[in-house]
Design brief:
heterodimer, A: MetI-like fold, 13 helices, B: mainly alpha, globular, transmembrane helix (chain B), MetI-like (chain B), MetI-like_sf (chain B), ABC transporter (chain B), membrane (chain B)
């Protein structure tokens, strides 16, 4: 082998090592989910055990993880749909019409985009206490109607893709403005909405601090909050059950990633280069 | 299009209605609380600047500030280092490394997983006696005694920083690679013809042209890093153990508000955090921008 081939080999070994490090904790999680507590305590192993069903039953006796799964799904799907639709609506308003205060409003929205979520957390909690929406999904779902970043992204997208003549033609045909939005602008925006939806969904699915603050009843917990609850419960004594709980919260996202990985990665690349 | 058309208000109205109620109002209400000793019930009592004076002399807040920086700093240095090395390897014309798609996907995987699940996973895997990490290291003979990772301040902070690195290097790599793909291939070919070695190519072509994108990565990572919460909250007792070493600013805010009911003071922490974020983003942006203008 030449020197160059040696270096190349080292590079591949390094890459393989990083890949193993990236995936190993997930593999250990799955292996340990199939072993009982005694086996886990007795030593480290790459080989799965045979206690998967027992572990699952022990965990389900304490916490119904599928309920958390369902709650997370309800919240994340609603958030994604609302954020996609209303952001498109807002972006259309900004891109197509001229009205007084348009630019100041847009700039104001951009400035508020920089404000970290925790800034208003205490006020947000008090607001929901006041209007009686604590321990409901409303504070998790409804605010998604106002997603400044998505509006910004879609407006930029519209500015390059929506041609004014298209609108003029539709107006000649006597279409109402709202109909124009639904039949012309929305379909044009769909690829951009889809890109944003992936990130909105993941962000909502992984959100921890807001549901932690506003939800109190275990049967309403979303998955991340339920995982914290699980850690503080008796199940934590049973390591195998703990691992299977974590696995259930993680595996669906991994499976979804298998299908969407190319799409997700190209979206990250595109988003960062444009800015 | 010059003509004013008020139909636009109709389209942006739902956004701004919700934005006002669920975003602007809570931010203003929180600001009001910073001047009160509000404890979650009754009428907030106005106490002027007391909370602001308190935060300046609050050693726990300083501790949280420095903890957050230490953890973020170590994580960012490692994450950027690994991502740059990977970007240099994959952009090298002489190596022609295959499998970019595969590696990108697998390196990115940890970033996608719910942080709370990651935190709990590592809290059991880093367990002193029964954790997989110590068992593995002992079985292959790297360590002879188990290390109590999450029970000593330094190892706990390093552990959290390493977990963050593990979660984020793939993302940073993808973003840097997007920047690399924007660099004209002729530049690398010219460097190859001129006989530049790998290091020279990297330092004189890749690095300077990646500066704007590194600025983007650094500011977004900084803003996210200053809000570090899920991991320190769930990996130990939620109070910053061991010895307050995992007490980050947002964890401190959360505990002051929702554990001790000091809403007024917690609101002040929120505003301090906001101010810190703005200042450091501005410094980062300015210094990086100036450097790139000079060159």
């Amino acid at each position: 082998m030449t020197r160059k081939q040696y270096i190349k080999l080292i590079v591949y070994v390094f890459l393989a090592l990083l890949a193993v490090i990236s995936a190993l904790p997930f593999y250990m999680m799955i292996v340990n989910a199939t072993r009982d507590t005694k086996e886990i305590l007795s030593g480290f192993s790459f080989i799965p055990g045979s206690s998967l069903v027992e572990n699952y039953e022990t965990m389900m006796d304490y916490v119904n993880i599928w309920l958390g799964f369902k709650n997370s799904l309800i919240v994340s799907v609603s958030v994604t749909v609302l954020s996609g639709y209303f952001s498109a609506l807002t972006a259309f308003g900004f891109a197509v019409y001229n009205f007084k205060g348009k630019n100041p409003l847009f700039i104001f929205m951009l400035l508020m985009m920089m404000v970290p979520g925790q800034l208003g957390l205490i006020g947000f909690y008090e607001l929901n206490k006041f209007i009686g929406t604590l321990d409901t999904f409303i504070p998790l779902i409804v605010p998604a109607i106002a997603s400044p970043f998505v509006v910004f992204f879609l407006r930029q997208y519209l500015a390059t893709t929506l041609h004014p003549t298209l609108l003029e033609a539709a107006r000649m045909d006597g279409a109402s403005e709202l109909k124009i939005f639904h039949t012309i602008a929305l379909p044009i925006m769909m690829p951009a909405v889809a890109t944003m939806s992936i990130f909105t969904f993941i962000g909502s699915w992984n959100n921890y601090i807001v549901p932690l603050v506003v939800l109190f009843s275990p049967e309403k917990f979303t998955l991340p909050v339920l995982m914290g609850f699980l850690k503080g419960s008796q199940v934590a004594q049973n390591l195998g059950s703990m691992y299977i709980g974590i696995a259930i919260s993680v595996v669906p996202i991994m499976v979804a990633f298998l299908f969407f990985s190319k799409y997700i990665i190209s979206s990250i690349s595109a988003g960062s280069v444009k800015e | 299009m010059k003509k004013l058309d008020y139909k636009g208000y109709f389209f942006i109205a739902p956004f701004f209605a919700i934005f006002l109620v669920f975003n602007i109002y809570p931010v203003l209400l929180t600001f009001y609380y910073t001047f009160t000793s509000y404890e979650g019930y009754g009428t907030p009592e106005f106490i002027g600047l007391t909370n602001y004076i308190r935060i300046f002399s609050d050693t726990y807040f300083y501790e949280a500030f420095f903890n957050t920086w230490k953890i973020w700093g170590l994580n960012f240095a490692l994450q950027l280092g690994i991502a740059l090395l990977l970007a240099a390897l994959f952009s090298d014309l002489r190596f022609k490394i295959k499998g970019l798609g595969f590696f990108r996907a697998i390196f990115y995987l940890p970033n996608l997983i719910t942080i709370s699940s990651v935190a709990i996973l590592f809290s059991i895997m880093l367990d002193w006696r029964h954790g997989s990490v110590n068992m593995f290291l002992q079985q292959i003979g790297i360590i002879s005694e188990p290390i109590n990772w999450l029970n000593q301040p330094v190892t706990a902070q390093v552990s959290v920083a390493l977990i963050l690195t593990w979660m984020w290097f793939g993302y940073t790599f993808i973003v840097l690679m997007a920047g690399v793909s924007g660099i004209p291939g002729e530049l690398y070919e010219a460097a190859l013809i001129d006989g530049a070695n790998r290091w020279q190519t990297f330092v004189h072509i890749t690095l300077p042209l990646l500066k704007p994108i590194m600025l983007y990565v650094m500011i977004t990572s900084l803003i996210g890093g200053l809000q570090l919460f899920d991991l320190p909250m769930l990996i130990t007792d939620g109070l910053g153990a061991p010895e307050g070493s995992l007490n980050t600013m947002v964890l401190y805010l959360y505990n002051q508000a929702f554990r001790y009911n000091n809403y007024g003071y917690a609101a002040t922490i929120a505003y301090a955090l906001f101010l810190i974020t703005v200042i450091f983003s501005a410094i980062t942006f300015k210094s990086m921008y100036r450097k790139s203008v000079k060159e």
